[in-house]
Design a protein that fits this description.
- This protein has 2 domains: about 180 residues, 3-Layer(aba) Sandwich (Glutaredoxin); about 160 residues, Glutaredoxin, CATH 3.40.30.10.
- Helices cover about 30% and strands about 20% of the residues.
- The chain has 9 helices and 16 strands.
- It has a 7-stranded mixed sheet, with helices on both faces. The protein has a 7-stranded mixed sheet with strand order 11-10-14-13-12-15-16, with helices on both faces. A two-stranded antiparallel sheet has the order 1-9.
- The protein starts with a helix and ends in a 15-residue tail after the last helix.
Length: about 425
Amino acid sequence: MNVSKNSADKRGPNMLLLGALGFLACVFMAIAVFTGLMTSAPIGVAGSSHNPVDPSADNPPGAVIVDVPWKHLHHIDNFEMTNQNDETFNTAQFSGDKPFLVSFFFATCPSICRDLNKQVARLNEQLKKEDVAFVTITVDPDRDTPEVLNRYAEDFGAVSPRWTFLTGQQYKIKEVGEQMFRVEVVDMANHTDNIMLVDKWGKYRDRFKWDDPYDMKRLVKVVKEVAAETEPPLNEIVKTRNAMVGREPIDLSTIRFLREFHLYTSDEKPFFSRDLTGEVWITNFFFTSCPTICKEQSKYIEGLQSRLGENPTKLVSITTDPSTDLPAKLREYARAHNADPDRWLFLTGNEKVIPRVSAEFFSAMGGTDHHSSELFVVDKWGNVRGRFDWQDAAQEVEMLGLVDSLWKESRPPGEFKRIDGG
């Protein structure tokens, strides 16, 4: 192609400009791709894989929405406080019946908290056909008395139990926020701006930013789906922004009470207690060098393994001497007791974690010299529902009766008496 000198002179600067713009576009594109990869990287979970969801009209731009097994979702225990009517209010009333949304605020906040509650009022209207509840908790219980909360609730037309404002002791509020929901509720200057969703089955299903219109659109959609559930979605994969799902805490000292635990099997595979959601299991504590009671108990469990027959109940033996009972040692012990690897699991792990699992999850004793000789029955939802002396024939009958009844449960119990009396 022939180009005149004048034409070339005119195009030269333009071509240089276009070239420079093209180079900058490539740089920005590379940065965007890199940033996208960093913010949407999958989060590893033992026994599962998380896949980031592509942003869409229903997802907040840049939000990390992940696919996770429902049974890996964190469980929210029932909690009790005082409502705006100065009445005792317990979230157990929602169990198996309706999902509820939790947020934090304080009444003297002049702007942001009022805007948050205006948003909750809008959600209340948008979801008026859904059987869902709203729970708003103060972070300033010294000033936010029931009387103050009652006046505040009237401003928003909030009527309990559809929309409840709660107050209580400061330690309890921090426990609910920081231990259960793992969000910040330090003081009035620092508290979460998320609205958290708990499903009918007590699972911490998702979290949403109240001032993000995209996230509010997603909230309405998710709540409608969750409210429509009639059975726990035991084997389903759900989408959530709750990115801590299934992850072992980096620092266990931040967790006051273990509600779940991570160990590993004699085959050196990761074990996450939530993986047994939907199954009933029986647990004992032992150590392989125990010369008497542990051997006798293991012989008993060997016989129990046979007597259970086609009953799918799993048996889980946790060593209290992990420094000695390494996986190879446990494999040898399992073979000596004819353990079916699909039914009877032997677990070991961190020597600082196992005593906490014993004391907190099972309310048992721990250590190599002193440990519980009882058997613990865990229901489908990860609750320890009974403890039994394996040497007492009458207690064995009671234990097996409990196991049978737990297999028949189709949803988590609203209330039951815990083995520690709680």
